[in-house]
Amino acid sequence: MSDDSRQPERQPVPGPQFLDPSDPADRVDASRTERWRPSERHGADHARIGIRLGLTAFIVATTIAGVLIIGGVGHQLGLDHWLGIGDRAQSLTSVFVDGARIPVSLLRSIYDTGVNDPLFFAVAMLVLIPAIAGLAAARPTREDDAPVAGPVRVVGLLTAGIVIIVDVIVMVRLLAADRPDFTAALESDAWLQTLEGLAASDGVTTVLAILLAVLAFRLPVDKWARVLAGTIALATTLAALAAASASASIVDGVSRDFPVVRSANGGTTTLLLGRLTTGGTIHLGLEPPYSLSISNGTGEMEIVGRRSIAETCSRGD
């Protein structure tokens, strides 16, 4: 074939380049351009922004509701129940603050207990590591996935049974735990360490219950087995969370400073713990025996300092 029959190659031309519709190499697929219309792209961006804002609002609302629930549970089952004085008057703001303080108190109790007893951390890891390993290995099945192999299903059913058994043990432990009240707790010199240890164990139990609940819904088993194990795990998680909120509320309450008051006419100096919803103020004596009393008087009181229950009831006081 002669050189004259060859098509001349296109040489680059200086300056701006334009598409040649007659050249197949410069033709653009119309479907691609339709896919990236500016109006559609902006609409998709607005939809994503709306979804993100909605998700953010949901997370914030859920967090606020969770803090209020934890604060309310801690208020009902925590310090007031431990002291045996009835319900103290609290505003919604104070319930929210208590709900925010309870997780901090729980973590502090776990740390203090681990420092005082290093074996506690070892036992906690021994309990939590199998649940974490199972959570990492579990893969939930989907409708479009291939059928689960027989051995995998057997392992999943055995794991679901183990989750149910552990949840029952956790529930029995929560119900059988010795939770002394104010009078019984002060009979021991290490009453504060006992309360912190109880809060720490409740915290580890709550973490274990949460891990088992997530694991139950990730197991590659039949739907009925997943629902059964998941329902029991969720019930156990709620019970463990309530117990941890109550015990952490007690630790936070005894460590919090209250005003030390004295009657204006020179009466007895006491620790003012709050006001009851039914009326009257709750007072704790500063000298052994540390007794609680309710005052219905309307006289003026003078604040002479601030002290915590732990500091007041310490044996070295």
Number of helices: 10
Largest sheet, strands/sense/barrel: 5 strands, antiparallel
E-strand count: 5
Average pLDDT rating: 80
Number of structural units classed as domains: 2
- Class based on secondary structure composition and strand pairing: alpha+beta
How far the N terminus sits from the C terminus, by CA atoms, comes to 112 Å
Query: Which spans have pLDDT < 50 for at least 5 consecutive residues?
Result: none
Spatial ordering of strands, largest sheet: 4-3-2-1-5
* Shape assignment: elongated
| Secondary-structure element pattern, one letter each | HHHHHHHHHEEEEEH
- Specify Rg, calculated over alpha carbons: 32 Å
Instruction: Report the portion of residues in β strands.
Output: 5-15%
Percent helix, as a range, is 55-70%
Structural write-up:
- With 317 residues, this protein is an alpha+beta fold.
- The chain has two domains: 52-255, no CATH class; 257-312.
- It is 60% helix and 10% strand.
- It contains ten helices and five strands, in the order αααααααααβββββα.
- The protein has helices spanning 30-35, 38-77, 79-83, 92-116, 118-137, 150-176, 182-185, 191-216, 223-255, 309-312; strands spanning 257-263, 269-275, 281-285, 292-295, 301-308.
- The chain has a five-stranded antiparallel beta sheet with strand order 4-3-2-1-5.
- β1 and β2 form a beta hairpin.
- α2 crosses α4 (92-116), α4 (92-116) packs across α5 (118-137) and α6 (150-176) packs parallel to α9 (223-255).
- The radius of gyration is 32 Å and the shape is elongated.
- The relative contact order is 0.11.
